[in-house]
Design goal:
The chain is mainly alpha-helical. The chain has 6 helices and 2 strands, in the order H-H-H-H-E-H-E-H.
């Protein structure tokens, strides 16, 4: 085989092996909902599962049926002041509330729920603890 034929064969092989982003999207979207829900259930943070709603109409409400939800606060700056920490806690609690409210309106049960909030240093610990207790009581 001459070099031109070899290059042509190599180019054809690369064309078959390379997938465009659209091809990958079609492959993923072609999977059954049960498979997609299983994958979304393995996502470490519910925020990322919710973000999949932006992918396409098919994904718009898929996250609402995920059997396992995990919420994990993102560590804030150690230099964050009390007001910033309170705002971060309120934002986290609000997000969890919204997601759980959507799930309550759906017909899908939550099989596993994990909510983890890292509060930071011990300053104003009593105030943050009470806010956390109030939030947890609302979720139960």
């Amino acid at each position: 085989m001459d070099s031109t034929a070899k290059e042509g064969a190599r180019d054809a092989k690369q064309a078959r092996l390379s997938l465009s982003a659209g091809d990958v999207d079609l492959m993923i979207s072609g999977l059954d909902d049960d498979v997609l829900l299983r994958v979304l259930g393995l996502v470490p943070d519910a925020r990322d599962a919710v973000r999949t709603a932006a992918l396409s109409r098919r994904w718009l409400r898929l996250w609402m049926r995920v059997p396992a939800l995990r919420f994990a606060s993102r560590p804030g700056s150690r230099a964050a002041r009390g007001a910033e920490r309170r705002a971060a806690l309120e934002e986290f609690v609000s997000f969890v509330n919204v997601v759980l409210a959507h799930r309550a309106r759906s017909d899908c049960a939550i099989e596993a729920l994990s909510i983890s909030y890292t509060s930071g240093p011990a300053r104003n610990r009593e105030e943050r603890m009470q806010a956390s207790i109030d939030a947890v009581q609302g979720w139960i």
